[in-house]
Amino acid sequence: MNPIPSLRQLSYLIALHEHGHFGNAATACFVSQSTLSVGIAELERLLGTRLVERSKRHVRFTPIGEEIVVRAGQTVRAAEDLFAAAQRPHEPLVGPLRMAVIPTVAPFLLSSILPSLERDWPRLQLYVREMVTSVACEAMERSTIDCVLLALPVECGDVESMDILVDRLILVAAKGRDEMASPLCDADNDRLLLLGDGHCLKAHALAVCNRAAAEADSRLVAATLHTLVQLVDAGLGYTLLPQMAIDAGILDGTSVETRPAQSLHATRTIALVWRSGHPRTSDFRLLGETIRRAVGA
66-95 pLDDT, tens per residue? Predict the structure, then answer.
């Protein structure tokens, strides 16, 4: 029998394709950069072809490399599904499970969720990654992530979901500024401050304010909720924040005040999602039930 690639080598290749950087890919795989680099070089020697073009500034996949990484994803997914199917009749929530959590949820819920999971499922090896929604959904499709804790509604492919809680969206503005922003976000379009592309909260805010995506070209775009708050505090515009962030004190020490957003859609639903038909569906439902209890939903 001819030598065949290992699942570890294929996983390294998938991670490099996802992150586009050897260091970041190594971190995602919990190995050193040299270990990942050697693993991919061995894979190239085994296959007898160059998969990745390397330079000091860029990592580019060759045409055959792009094809191989797709097949690698399918192979790794099939192997993981096989293992999960074999384990299902035995103890639930055992072994590795990779969960992504979006940045507008992670800082406010993980401190409650993780201790509960460790207590209730001591044999679960949970790996958590904070990712924006679009990246997390793509990673789940490629099987580098098993499930995602995110906010609905959002497009995330062919998935099943379990609702965890409903989170209100609250309109906020600096004291004495943007008075017309209440109650229907009807102030000047340029003053509606948003997170960047890839964050589902951007789409949720636009929906609350009856704005089309084409109208979302703000001069100021933030990558985090904390940056949004600082921009609002400086009087540069108004935005919508999740209730959970406000409850966690994100407005403390600022002049930012809350105002009612009178919209039927001024909520988002925090949910756990996973690939439809995944063999670990029962595990994900147990995971979701534990998360619900942990956050008091």
Answer: 999 989 988 887 887 777 667 666 678 988
Give burial (CB, 10 Å; 0-12/13-18/19+) of 289: middle
Task: Specify the residue for token string 């929604």.
Answer: 133
Domain residues for the domain of 133 are 93-165+269-295
3-state secondary structure 76-107: HHHHHHHHHHHHCCCCCCCEEEEEEECCCCHH
DSSP-derived 3-state class of residue 192: strand
Cis bond before residue 115 (omega within 30° of 0): no
d(CA 101, CA 264): 26
Q: Report yes or no on 1 lying in a domain.
A: no
Reported as a single tens digit per residue, the pLDDT across 213-251 is: 545 566 788 899 999 999 999 988 888 999 999 999 999
Total structural domains in the chain?
3
Determine, yes or no, domain membership for 195: yes
In a domain, residue 42? The reply is yes
Closest CA to 206 of 72, 282, 196: 196
Rounded to whole angstroms, how far apart are CA atoms 17 and 4? 20
Residue with tokens 């403390």: 252
Note whether 225 and 159 are same-domain residues. Answer: no
SS3 at position 21 = coil
